[in-house]
């Protein structure tokens, strides 16, 4: 490997040119995961690759280290690390690069550590693997242990000497991610690739990890390539950003420029679609219409053309090259025929909803009984500690809530706060262990069979995961018809079909969708089917458990807008559960912050976000990353 | 209202539309399996046409080598035509297996569904399964034969009994997993009744491992029948089966190796074919 280069400008450390990756679909047809990606990373730089699922960002990262899964292969381009082309190296030579010169951090810290080995052992393993390349030698076991201890210290694990002998389960999620970062840094790599390092973590922990990565970048000079879907994370931690869409880079430039004044319509749309914590309750979100491209089809022209407001005939036929857009090359590049074109400028502006949703029912019929009322709800899950001692997990611990007709109650909490369990109690998927649940004033905590049937009509649920919540063996039509059958009155096939068609139209799908199975739909479309199913019995309460957590940002906005539209049209009361405070603020009238199974703070959405009383709420607010510091006011 | 998002949702092309079982059956692995199993089954079905002698008719010329005196595979120690005995043996085997395995599978599934209804029933059914599984297959075979006497019936009963817990356990495990999935909870919240939830929603999603198990169980059944007949507790002679042909050939192994070759080859082909099929199904459904 060449070590010295003439110090002209700053030499690129990692240079990717025209990278193309194909996957082989199960039926043998090629899927173009990545096409013609250019990327330059300089020493000590932090670069983010942003994109939605299927944009090719993770594939690019894996391709850099030649770690593509078995059905993927690099079909074009080069990856140069200090002038060595990694795409032509043999397995043995690659091993000297992986883990030594390029370190990698993965998304899920819970599964990326071996549960039966101590942390010390696992760090030792990494150090030993590359001991030969180090001159000083981590050959001596004690030296390696010292280094491991140093590393833990570096990533901020308290009392590292003792904790080296602990197993992964003795660490929290955030700590495990720290340990993985320590492992990636063990051999002082030049490049650290972090693939969605904070996606599996809670907002407050995410913040800490990002800070750690920034600090390490400063301290060790390791260049950081951060792969993420979260624009807020980018804004917080990276100098430069690449926006990817449909396997291509659509925009590349300094973070402040790209996020401040996006030139590509996709970047602009994506930015506009991100819910901002600073926007008041009732702000309508902007969603990019349509769904991401099908990568198995050959793409002619711009991948974004089908969803682009300013697309014309040229966009549909000629793929736009990634060219410098004003100023020197390498500073700002956009792949668009009409950069910053007509349609784009209007896009990012947020449309305030025509009817201010909040105003309509700030003081709803206070005299009447609330639609849904809970007092002292409690739920325990039987769990045993070591030695068979009973050690129940209290998921929901005395929750009081009240929901009026047509109102949205947002519930925010981090993972493990009990919000999903609460949702399931509200819809009677689990019985509550204690407390009283009242629907329209009548006690339905332990309903009789008949009462439960009535209740199933009134209270419905939208689930988090649109992939798991639809029966893969049934067509969309049958899935939506299930509650109709259960409720009765739709024994006639034609009538049922008609109603299913109506429901599909209501959620923005074509009635012909009824004959297809869930897997034929994209994530956003599946969630629409889930909503149609929930609407089928004509409920008055809709409990939405993280309805957009599994969706891409541009699609997330579509679903949230659909829910608020439906609420206005049908007068639904919504319980909207999410971990993202920004999303919750925009849809909710009132917000409850949940922690350890309790509501720590409840209040009007804007009041709670603008002047939180509890420290925990303040921490949550502070941790929510904003893509742009000051939101561009219309 | 939001506008209609797309008139045609992105339908994935190719295999996505095809049923995975069909896709599995078109793989090379499965095709070879199908040919092997098909050939053996066909040989059994066409036994009356393919053989020139009755399986029990004695010609008076014992242990003639293949090809002599109109006996294509030769004769056995009692002068019976080996080819006819082989073909009719396949027939007997297939009849027993084709009856016993599906019955065992159905009963096993029925018990598993029963167990899913209530925790107490679950315990009862599970312990009953344990009881059956506690006996090794052959001990069970001997015990059943001791009660019922030798013949076809005990073979069917033994295979059925052996398969019930296998399928029961398999399905129960599937139900326990699927029951907690979001779609099952969604159906419950939607008001779907328990029986319907179990049969229309959960059962189809548990089917994949059962189909694979069916192919595996057929393989096991071939062995079990063979072993029972070999020990003389199965189908009664002179009726030929693959197992008793084999046991009959054993004393003459050095003298007349062709005697044992036929049944051995057929059992091998059948097991190989079924294994290839189950493997192909398994791979395709695991995707």
From TrEMBL, chain A:
Residues 16-271, 372-621 form the ABC transporter domain. It comes from the Bacteria. GO terms for molecular function: ATP binding; ATP hydrolysis activity. GO terms for biological process: peptide transport. One of its GO terms (cellular component) is plasma membrane. The keyword Nuclease does not apply. It holds the Pfam family ABC_tran. Keywords: ATP-binding, Cell membrane, Membrane, Nucleotide-binding, Transport. It is a peripheral membrane protein. It is found in: Cell membrane. NCBIfam families: oligo_HPY, PRK10419.1, PRK11308.1. PANTHER family: DIPEPTIDE TRANSPORT ATP-BINDING PROTEIN DPPD, OLIGOPEPTIDE TRANSPORT ATP-BINDING PROTEIN APPD. Belongs to the ABC transporter superfamily. This is ABC transporter ATP-binding protein. It comes from Streptomyces triticagri.
From TrEMBL, chain B:
The keyword Acetylation does not apply. The chain crosses the membrane at residues 32-50, 96-116, 128-147, 210-235, 255-277. Residues 90-278 form the ABC transmembrane type-1 domain. One of its GO terms (biological process) is transmembrane transport. Keywords: Cell membrane, Membrane, Transmembrane, Transmembrane helix, Transport. It is found in: Cell membrane. It is a multi-pass membrane protein. GO terms for cellular component: plasma membrane. Its main location: membrane. It comes from the Bacteria. Belongs to the binding-protein-dependent transport system permease family. This is ABC transporter permease.
């Amino acid at each position: 490997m060449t070590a010295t280069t003439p110090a002209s400008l700053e030499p690129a450390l990692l240079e990717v040119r025209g990278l193309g990756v194909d996957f082989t679909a199960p039926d043998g047809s090629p899927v173009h995961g990545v096409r013609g990606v250019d990327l330059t990373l300089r020493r000590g730089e932090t670069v983010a690759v942003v994109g939605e699922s299927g944009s090719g960002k993770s594939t690019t990262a894996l391709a850099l280290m030649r770690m593509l899964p078995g059905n993927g292969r690099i079909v074009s381009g080069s990856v140069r690390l200090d002038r060595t082309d990694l795409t032509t190296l043999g397995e043995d030579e690659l091993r000297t690069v992986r883990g030594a010169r390029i370190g990698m951090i993965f998304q899920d810290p819970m599964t990326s550590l071996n549960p039966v080995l101590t942390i010390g052992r696992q760090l030792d393993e990494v150090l030993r693997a590359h001991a030969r390349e180090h001159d000083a030698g981590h050959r001596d076991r004690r030296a390696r242990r010292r280094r491991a201890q140093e590393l833990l210290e570096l990533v901020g694990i308290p009392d590292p000497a003792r904790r080296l002998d602990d197993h992964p389960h003795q660490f929290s999620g955030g700590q495990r991610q720290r340990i993985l970062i320590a492992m990636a840094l063990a051999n002082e790599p030049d490049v650290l690739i972090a693939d969605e390092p904070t996606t599996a973590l809670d907002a407050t922990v995410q913040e800490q990890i990002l800070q750690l990565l920034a600090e390490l970048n400063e301290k060790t000079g390791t260049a950081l390539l951060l792969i993420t879907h979260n624009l807020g994370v980018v804004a917080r931690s990276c100098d430069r950003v690449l926006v990817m869409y449909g396997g291509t880079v659509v925009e590349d430039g300094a973070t402040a420029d790209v996020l401040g004044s996006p030139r590509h319509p996709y970047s602009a749309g994506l930015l506009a679609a991100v819910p901002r914590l600073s926007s008041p309750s009732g702000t309508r979100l902007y969603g990019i219409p349509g769904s991401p491209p099908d990568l198995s089809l050959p793409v002619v022209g711009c991948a974004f053309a089908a969803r682009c407001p300013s697309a014309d005939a040229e966009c549909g036929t000629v793929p736009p090259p990634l060219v410098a857009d004003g100023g020197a090359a390498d500073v700002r590049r956009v792949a668009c025929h009409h950069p910053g074109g007509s349609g784009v400028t209007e896009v990012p502006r947020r449309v305030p909803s025509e009817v201010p949703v909040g105003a309509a029912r700030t003081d709803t019929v206070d005299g009447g009984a609330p639609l849904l009322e809970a007092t002292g709800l409690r739920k325990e899950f039987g769990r045993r500690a070591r030695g068979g001692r009973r050690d129940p997990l209290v998921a929901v611990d005395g929750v009081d809530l009240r929901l009026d007709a047509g109102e949205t109650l947002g519930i925010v909490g981090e993972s493990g706060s009990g919000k999903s369990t609460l949702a399931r109690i509200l819809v009677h998927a689990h019985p509550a262990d204690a407390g009283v649940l009242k629907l329209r004033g009548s006690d339905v905590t332990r309903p009789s069979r008949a009462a439960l049937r009535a209740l199933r009509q009134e209270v419905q649920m939208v689930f988090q995961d649109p992939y798991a919540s639809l029966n893969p063996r049934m067509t969309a039509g049958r899935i939506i018809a299930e509650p109709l059958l259960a409720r009765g009155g739709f024994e006639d096939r034609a009538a049922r079909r008609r109603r299913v068609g109506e429901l599909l139209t209501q959620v923005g799908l074509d009635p012909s969708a009824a004959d297809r199975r869930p897997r034929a739909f994209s994530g956003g479309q599946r969630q629409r089917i889930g909503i149609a199913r929930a609407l089928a019995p004509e409920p008055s309460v809709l409990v939405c458990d993280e309805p957009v957590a599994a969706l891409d940002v541009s699609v997330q906005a579509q679903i949230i807008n659909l829910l608020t539209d439906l609420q206005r049209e049908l007068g639904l009361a919504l319980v909207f559960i999410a971990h993202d405070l920004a999303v919750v603020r925009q849809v909710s009238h009132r917000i409850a912050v949940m922690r350890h199974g309790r509501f720590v703070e409840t209040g009007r959405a804007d009041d709670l976000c603008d002047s939180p009383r509890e420290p925990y709420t303040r921490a949550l607010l502070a941790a929510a990353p904003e893509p742009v510091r000051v939101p561009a006011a219309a | 209202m939001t506008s209609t998002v797309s008139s045609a949702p992105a339908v994935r092309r190719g295999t996505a539309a095809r049923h995975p079982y069909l896709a599995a059956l078109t793989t090379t692995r499965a095709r070879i399996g199908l040919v092997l199993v098909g050939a053996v089954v066909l040989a059994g079905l066409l036994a009356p046409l393919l053989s020139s002698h009755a399986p029990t008719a004695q010609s008076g010329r014992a242990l003639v080598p293949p090809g002599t005196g109109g006996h294509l595979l030769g004769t056995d120690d009692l002068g019976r035509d080996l080819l006819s005995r082989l073909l009719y043996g396949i027939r007997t085997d297939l009849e027993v297996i084709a009856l016993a395995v599906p019955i065992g599978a159905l009963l096993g599934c029925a018990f598993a569904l029963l167990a899913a209804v209530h925790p107490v029933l679950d315990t009862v059914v599970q312990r009953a399964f344990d009881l059956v599984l506690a006996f090794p297959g052959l001990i069970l075979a001997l015990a059943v034969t001791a009660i019922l006497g030798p013949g076809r019936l005990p073979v069917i009963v033994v295979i059925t009994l052996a398969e019930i817990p296998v399928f029961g356990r398999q399905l129960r495990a599937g139900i326990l997993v699927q029951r907690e999935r979001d779609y099952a909870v969604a159906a419950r919240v939607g008001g779907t009744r328990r029986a319907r939830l179990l049969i229309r929603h959960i059962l189809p999603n548990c089917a994949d491992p059962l189909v694979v198990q069916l192919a595996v169980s057929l393989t096991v059944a071939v062995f079990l029948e063979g072993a029972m007949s070999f020990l003389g507790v199965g189908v009664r002679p002179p009726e030929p089966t693959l197992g008793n042909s084999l046991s009959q050939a054993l004393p003459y192994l050095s003298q007349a190796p062709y005697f044992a070759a036929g049944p051995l080859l057929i059992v091998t082909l059948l097991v190989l074919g079924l294994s290839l099929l189950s493997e192909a199904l398994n791979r395709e459904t695991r995707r």
